[in-house]
Amino acid sequence: MHNHPITLGIIIGNRNFFPDSLINQGRRDILDVLAECGVNAVILDEQDTKLGAVETWQHAQKCAALFDENRHRIDGILISLPNFGDEKGIAETIKLSELHVPTLVQAYPDDPSKFAAEHRRDAFCGKVSVCNNLYQYGYPFTLTELHTVSPKTESFRADLRRFVQVCRVVKQMKRARLGAVGARPNAFNTTRYSEKLLQAFGISVNTIDLADVFGQAAKLADGDPRVKGSLEQIQAYVPTGGVPAPALVKMAKLGIVLDDWMAAYGLDASAIQCWDALQHNYGVNVCTLMSMMSEHLMPSACEVDVTGVASMYALQLASGTPSALVDWNNNYGDQPDKCVLFHCGNWARSFFSDVKMANAEILATTLGTENTYGTVAGRTPAGPFSYARVTTDDRHGRIRAYVGDGTYVDDPLDTFGSRAVVEVPGLQKLMKYICKNGFEHHAAMSRSHAAAVLNEAFSTYFEWDVYYHEG
Questions:
Q1: Looking at CB atoms within 10 Å, which of 184, 357, 362, 387 has the fewest?
Q2: CB neighbours of 4 closer than 8 A, spacing ≥ 6?
C-alpha cells in the first residue's frame, strides 16, 4: 500500500501571446522528470487543446473532465508555468474537477540574457497570480523551494520528491484504519485520546479485547503448522538465544491472532496494551511482534497509544521507512541539546546495527523475568533523525502536532532495551513546548529527515495546529 506509484494530474498553464516553443519544451521537461522519478501523469493530449495546455474556459472544462475520469488514480496536481499562464483557467480546472488533493505550483525562471519576445516567460509574476486565485478559491497548495525553478534541476527534483511524499501522507492518513488491542494501562492518562476527533478527520479506530486475543491464542495447538511457521518467522527475524522455548511459542500464537485480526479489518497499524495485562495473564512481552509489524510498514505502538501509532504511520508515509514509538526518556549529562530515547524494546529491526531478543529488565523487577521475554534490544547508530507527535486536544476540539529533525549520535550509552542518543538543536525549547502544550511523553521517530513533509501535509492540507521545530 505504502509504495504504490503516485499519479499526478498535470496542468500546463499558457498565455497565448507567449511563444509556443516554451510550452512544447516545458511539457517535455515535466514529463521527462516525472518519468525519471517514477511518477505517473494524467495530462491533456497536445491535440485536446492548443499544445495540450490550459488557458480558456473550454480548456479548463476538458482538463477537468480528464481529471474526473481519473479521480481514483490522481494523488495530487502539478501546475507548471512555462510562461505567465492563465490564472483563471487553472483555478477553474481544479474547481470543475472537484479534486481535493495536494497541489504543487512550479514556474520557469527567465534568462536575463533572453528578454526578447521570443524567449521571455514572465512566469515569476504569473505564479503570484495563479497562487492568488488558488487562495481566493480556497484551494491549499504547495510551493517549490525557489520561486522559479526549471524542472530539470536537482532543486525541482527535490521539490517533487517531497511533494510525492506529501501526497502519500495526505491520501493515506485520511483513510487510515488503526487497531486498539486492549484497554490503555490504567496508570497512563497520557495515552487518552478522542476517537471522535480522529474519525471526523477520517481516521478509524477498531478495537479488540485482550480476553479475545488470549482466548483465540489458547485454541492454537503447539504443533499447528501455522504456529510452527510463525515461530520460524520470529527466529529468522531476531536472535533468540537464551529465551525459553515456551515463551517463543506463546509469541508465535499471539502473532497469528493479531495478524488475522488486522487482516480481517483491513488495519494499517496497531496500538497494543503491552503492559501489564500481557505479562500477568499471558506471560510474555509482545515487543518482538510489534517490531516485526513496524519493520513491514504496519507500525505498532505501546500502551494503546492510538495517536502515537497515528504519528508513527504519518512519519512512515513521509519517510518511506519504518518508524518507532519512543519515550523522551533521559537527559544526556550536561549537554542541553542531547537526550536519550528509550523503550522496552519494540523498535523495528532496521533501527539497529546489532539486535537480539531479551527480556524487559525494568518490568521484570515487578512482573518476573519469566513473564517479560520478547523485547528487542539494540542501539541505533549515528544518522538522520526525524520525530513527530500527533495528539487530539479534546479541550479545544482540535488535532495538534509537532515535528522536527535532528541527528542520532554515537555518544556512549550503557543501558538495555531499544535505545538511542540524539542531538536536537534547541532541544530545551522543544521540551518546553511539549510540556506547556500538554503533549504526551511518547513520540514517533524514523531514521530520516522528513519533518518538512509532515509539516506541509499537516499544516497546509489538514489544517492542524502544527509546531515545526527548526532549532
A1: 362
A2: none
Quote the pLDDT of residue 115.
Answer: 83
Helices (H) and strands (E) in the chain, counts: 15, 18
What domains does the chain contain, in order, with CATH numbers? Answer: 7-173 (3.40.50.10940), 177-469 (3.40.275.10)
Q: Look up residue 178 and give its amino acid.
A: L
> What pLDDT is attached to residue 407?
98
CA angle 181, 183, 185 (to 5 degrees): 115
Q: Is 223 exposed, middle or buried (0-12, 13-18, 19+ CB in 10 A)?
A: exposed
Q: How far is CA 131 from CA 139, 141, 346, in A?
A: 9, 8, 45
Per residue in 253-272, pLDDT (tens digit) is 999 999 999 999 999 999 99
Residue 260 to residue 237: CA distance in whole angstroms: 19
pLDDT digits (tens, 9 = 90+) for 174-225: 999 999 999 999 999 999 999 999 999 999 999 999 999 999 999 999 999 9
Question: Strand, coil or helix: what is 305?
Answer: coil
What's the pLDDT at 3?
65
The neighbour count for residue 396, using CB atoms within 10 Å, is 9
